[in-house]
Amino acid sequence: CVSLLLLKGVISGALLYIKDDFQIVKQSSFLQETIVSMALVGAMIGAASGGWINDYYGRKKATLFADVVFAAGAIVMAAAPDPYILIAGRLLVGLGVGVASVTAPVYIAEASPSEVRGGLVSTNVLMITGGQFLSYLVNSAFTQVSGTWRWMLGVSGVPAVVQFGLMLFMPESPRWLYMKNRKEEAIQVLSKMYDISRLEDEINHLSAAEEEEKLQKDTVSYLDVFKSKEMRLAFFAGAGLQAFQQFTGINTVMYYSPTIVQMAGFHSNQLALLLSLIVAGMNAAGTVVGIYFIDHCGRKKLALSSLCGVIVSLIILSVSFLKQSDVTYDGGLYGWLAVLGLALYIAFFAPGMGPVPWTVNSEIYPQQYRGICGGMSATVNWVSNLIVAQTFLSIAEAAGTGVTFLILAGIAVMAVIFVIVFVPETQGLTFLEVEQIWKERAWGSSRDGNNMEGLLEQGSRS
């Protein structure tokens, strides 16, 4: 439902032609990074406010708002007379993306049966990666058209308009409706999803969640997240996954893949876009694989296997650039090795570290904290994304591209350790069972007479 989210990825190809039109951009790596990363500044603001918008106005209205802002940003970018108006348009696009990034996983998770919840949330990620692939197709389609980059950026707003129209016919989240005391509407939505016997169970689960929420404060603040030991542990795991998703370099690859291909010695804009299109296609295909495995192998195993492949791929990329010399900087053996490293990176990243952080974050927070924690963790994602996007070219110029990829490989090793130590398996567990995991991690396995291992085993059997 949200393929528009990363159609902002057209900037990777558009940047090649923006540099041709604006000499000031061509001469400044910092300005290039700012054009790319200003969308991330907007996304940070959108994600930070998205949790509140979700909790107050609902998931549906939040999505509609995101579509309007995104479409407006696309229009501003396409009409930009100078780099600075273009940057303002990127900020608007980012605002829409940030709100949508918080809203979509929560909406899908709350409207999905637990046995297919992971796959459906991952389908959201597939729409994102599919959007990235489409963005490269758009780039290729407009390479011979006058005003190339304006068409690339303007067309990216079309999916937002389409989604706005389709979203008008979608129901609100039944869980949000129930918690807002709109129980009849919630039951009507649930009745379209479940048969009579399952419907009664779901209503009972919502009633139990409502009673538990009544025992808590009516509203929660950002400070409340850190006052509760259980919530600190949950947020640390969720936010950590989001940070490592970015610091292992995915958006370095997606934003700058044509630039990286040119760094590897393939100087033609068209060839760089074609090779990048192949990389984006593998990203979408890998996400399809992840949709299957996330509910069959579990979130934690999938993340770990993904990270191991990412480490190997980043080492290949590092070696390919370190071995290049000025004499061989012509797209030869090591140039093709760099392209192979990019392809392998996507092949390993897309099925695991692409969907897992979003899926886990849609599952690990109690209802009363879900909106605010989802917004906070998404903000961490966008802040991390901004740091990587704003510094990649500068670090590559200062330390060398090979060393830069080696640094990313080291971060991926730290991510493996983090997942092993801090991230629980949530496969097949209900929201109440996931809450119990955090209680037991915070206060010991004897609390409430259950143990974490039992819950995890139950999830593995589901």
TrEMBL record:
Segments passing through the bilayer: 35-52, 64-81, 87-108, 120-139, 151-170, 233-256, 271-295, 302-322, 334-360, 372-396, 402-423
InterPro entries the UniProt entry points to: MFS_dom (IPR020846), MFS_sugar_transport-like (IPR005828), MFS_trans_sf (IPR036259), Myo-inositol_Transporter (IPR050814), Sugar/inositol_transpt (IPR003663), Sugar_transporter_CS (IPR005829)
Keyword Signal: no
Domain of life, source organism: Eukaryota
Positions of the Major facilitator superfamily (MFS) profile domain: 1-427
Membrane topology listed for this record: Multi-pass membrane protein
Gene3D superfamilies with a match to the protein in the record: MFS general substrate transporter like domains
Pfam families: Sugar_tr
Keywords recorded for this protein, A-Z: Membrane, Transmembrane, Transmembrane helix, Transport
PROSITE patterns given in the database record: MFS (PS50850), SUGAR_TRANSPORT_2 (PS00217)
Subcellular location: Membrane
Main subcellular localisation: membrane
Keyword Transport appears in the UniProt entry: yes
Family stated for the protein in its record: Belongs to the major facilitator superfamily. Sugar transporter (TC 2.A.1.1) family.
NCBIfam families, per the entry: SP
Protein name: Major facilitator superfamily (MFS) profile domain-containing protein
